[in-house]
Amino acid sequence: MRDILAPRIHGIDTSEIRKVFDLAAKIKNPLNLSIGQPDFPVPQPVKEAMIKAIEDNKSGYTPTAGLPQLREAIVEYLHAKTSVMHAADDVIVSTGVASILFLLFQTVVAKNDAVLLIDPYFLIYPALVKYHEAKQYTIKEDFDAGEIAALRARLEKEKVKLKLIIFASPSNPTGKILSREQLLLLSNLAEEHDAILASDEIYAAFDYEKKHVSMAAINKDRTLTLNGFSKSHAMTGLRVGYLAAPARYSGIVQKMVTLQQYTMVCSPHAMQWGAITALKTGIDNELAIMKKRRDLVVSKLTPVTRLPYPDGAFYVYPEIPIDSADFVTQAIERRLLLVPGYIFSANRKSIRISYATREDILEEGTQIFCDMVKELGQ
What we know:
Helix 7 (180-193) links the parallel strand 5 (162-168) and strand 6 (196-200).
């Protein structure tokens, strides 16, 4: 039988995170430190807004780009956060940031275009680079001016111009927040290459030391800001995310909207009304709990291994003494579910741990992890 699949699809495999998620359903009493979603409920005001929308029969299609009321609210929210004023027509709402990423890559990334990622990276980024037959370049997360200079020299030697620079800050999987100095280095590089800056800020609400700086505040004319409500307001399954662009990239947004007409159509109607309320609903109590969990996990792990300090998000990314695929397999035998680091990086000797779960599970799970590191490192 001939291969009936399109060649481009062969580069895409089932997410290792999804595989671990599926395993959790098969293991009795798993210690699940793999899941990338908050364990707190959707805030009550947001629930009520969505319920009211359903009761008011707001269940049909919305405009493809999203409810005008939501796009205006996003503009106001971003202005308050960054002092950057977007036009509502330069905002697109879709079914989460994952869909935004797909629409963005489909719109701007062509075969052989050069895309810069920061390693470790969110696993969807390299998958989309490969799917679109683009060229991937990387720099390490702790990069400084020297690393940027080395990258610049490599690009010049290879006669390559970057098309897109994409990163998440805070990071999934490390929790690191890029410094203002690092953002300036990326901004300058984008100017030199006439490249688009895509700033994925889905974890920006989880900023425990108030260190987060939005790239739009550094370079408002080149930055596409991506965000949503899955993490901040526990709306992972409700699917509302957005992208806001500067005026020079309004054409990107309009083409993304056109493409959305033929794919996602629109984000769920009632959930968009909930998102409007979410923009005005704080999560201070939830943040305090997450920060306490972070401190617990860091204190447990640092005596036995090294890890980037997690400024935000709800992950840590510790080093391990063996290949991450083997480590995950052995952890499963002890009921511990983790995510292998090789899906986030060329470095295979790290593991992603999520601390978005109860402290008793974190205590037991991290103890097993630490015991494994000690045993395997001997």
